[in-house]
Design goal:
Helices cover 43% and strands 22% of the residues. By secondary structure, the chain is α+β, with helices and mostly antiparallel strands. The chain has one domain: Alpha-Beta Plaits, CATH 3.30.70. A 4-stranded antiparallel β-sheet has the order 2-3-1-4, with helices on both faces. A hairpin with a 5-residue loop joins strand 2 and strand 3.
C-alpha cells in the first residue's frame, strides 16, 4: 500500500509527531499524542495523516498540511487542550518536526523511513533519527 504523501501534490508541509514523555496518558484520557492526532483532523488546512509503529511498539505520526499557518493553529489548539487534560504544554508532551515538501521525490516512502529511523530508538534516540530523516529527505543532508 502506498503512502498518503505519494498522492499529495506539492508544495505542502509535513509535521512529524512523537510523544516526548511516556506516562502522561491514562486509560480515561488517552495520551497527549492521541489528542493531537484527533485535533489535527478537525483543523483547517489538514490534508491527512499516517501512523506507523516500530518494532518496539512506539508510534510515530506524520500529518500533512496546506501551510505553516495551519500547523501553527493546530499546535496552539493542542497546547491549550494538553494544558487542560494533562497539566503540561505541547512542548513538554510531544516533539513535532516540520518540513516543507516541494517535490514528490523528497518525501516518497516517508513512513518507511520514519519506521526504519525509529527502530533504533532505544540506542540513539528517536528525536535525533527523525530529525536526521527529515533533513535527509528534504535534501539538506547527504
Amino acid at each position: 500500500m502506498g503512502s498518503l504523501a505519494e498522492n499529495l501534490a506539492p508544495p505542502y508541509y509535513a509535521a512529524i509527531l512523537d510523544q516526548a514523555q511516556d506516562g502522561l496518558g491514562t486509560a480515561e484520557n488517552g495520551a497527549p499524542a492521541d489528542h493531537m492526532v484527533t485535533l489535527a483532523t478537525c483543523q483547517p488546512g489538514f490534508l491527512g495523516l499516517e501512523t506507523a509503529h516500530n518494532e518496539h511498539g512506539r508510534r510515530v505520526t506524520v500529518s500533512y498540511w496546506e501551510d505553516i499557518a495551519a500547523i501553527e493553529g493546530w499546535k496552539a489548539a493542542g497546547d491549550s487542550r494538553l494544558h487542560e487534560q494533562f497539566g503540561v504544554g505541547l512542548a513538554d508532551a510531544c516533539d513535532i518536526w516540520i518540513t516543507r515538501v516541494e517535490e514528490p521525490s523528497h518525501f516518497a516512502g516517508l513512513m518507511q523511513d520514519v519506521v526504519l529511523a525509529a527502530r533504533d530508538v532505544e540506542f540513539r534516540g528517536l528525536g535525533a533519527f527523525l530529525f536526521a530523516a527529515i533533513l535527509s529527505l528534504a535534501g539538506l543532508l547527504p
